UniProtKB/TrEMBL annotation:
It comes from Bacteroides stercorirosoris. Keywords: Transferase. Residues 12-119 form the Glycosyltransferase 2-like domain. InterPro entries: Glyco_trans_2-like, Nucleotide-diphossugar_trans. GO terms for molecular function: hexosyltransferase activity. It holds the Pfam family Glycos_transf_2. The keyword Transferase applies. This is Rhamnosyltransferase.
Length: 268
């Protein structure tokens, strides 16, 4: 698979699939960023709606690249990871097709990574920010995903330190790919990738396992849209679908527990 060399410092990686309803708003929110040190790479997973037509509207914009790897129906996780594997850049951010980025998301994220690189040269570094949860029409449901109960900063710092630890990440990660920003060294330690868990979980574990740095930024940088057609993350569903999601989650957790007991250590 041919590599794509990003001429900008930051590669924003977007995986799409049947995302016509909200895709325009997401792309426009990226174009409205205060920081312009980025290229947006979009890979589609075989959409049957007008997603590709929307992407093609931006074909004249040199900050947006449509990547065609020849692969389709990979699923959300592999769509992101094949894109990550193809693009060579200094820094990376994942981007869902249906959210809205607040104007300073890129600047806040890259500032924190660069700050940490100064004191931790050559180490894998991953930061994640807070986000606001909204409904399909962008009405706010939750002002803060990280601090839902308004914990004092001392308690919140302690909680985040525990959650960012390798021991906790092995059990499950709360770090969503859509709020991540990480350096090239973090990418390097995340491959080879065997699709045993979602990409955000595997990358976070790989960074922690390789003596990397994981840091939390408490400022919300995006509107995380919950609706009936989310392809990654949480979904607004009927009770029947909620029960199915719970069953699938339990089955997935049992599978991961089995793999951990058999192989031990980090599964990546």
């Amino acid at each position: 698979m041919n590599k794509i060399i990003n001429t900008k410092p930051i590669a924003i990686l977007m995986a799409t699939y049947n995302g016509e309803k909200y895709l325009d708003a997401q792309i426009e929110s990226i174009l409205s960023q205060t920081n312009n040190e980025w290229t947006l790479y979009i890979q589609d997973d075989g959409s049957k709606d007008k997603t590709l037509d929307i992407i093609k509207k931006y074909s004249d914009n040199n900050r947006i690249m449509w990547v065609d790897s020849g692969l389709t129906r990979q699923g959300c996780c592999m769509n992101f990871m094949t894109l990550l594997n193809m693009v060579e850049s200094r820094y990376y951010m994942f981007c869902d097709q249906d959210d809205v980025w607040l104007p300073e998301k890129v600047q806040i994220s890259i500032d924190k990574v660069r700050e940490l690189e100064k004191t931790n040269p050559d180490k894998p570094i991953l930061i994640h920010t807070d986000k606001k949860r909204v409904d399909a029409d962008l009405n706010i449901i939750l002002e803060s995903e990280l601090n839902r109960t308004n914990l004092p900063i001392e308690k919140l710092n302690k909680l985040m330190k525990e959650r960012n630890s390798l021991e906790q990440l092995r059990l499950g990660t709360f770090i969503a790919g859509c709020v991540m920003c990480f350096n090239h060294r973090a990418k390097e330690v995340s491959f080879p990738f065997n699709n045993s868990r979602m990409q955000d979980s595997v990358i976070a574990m790989a960074v922690a396992a390789n003596e990397g740095i994981i840091a939390t930024v408490y400022r919300p940088t995006m509107l995380y849209r919950i609706h009936t057609h989310n392809t990654c993350g949480e979904v607004e569903t009927s009770m029947l679908n909620k029960l199915r999601n719970i069953t699938n989650t339990l089955n997935g957790n049992l599978r991961m527990y089995y793999l951990y007991k058999v192989y031990g250590g980090v599964i990546c």
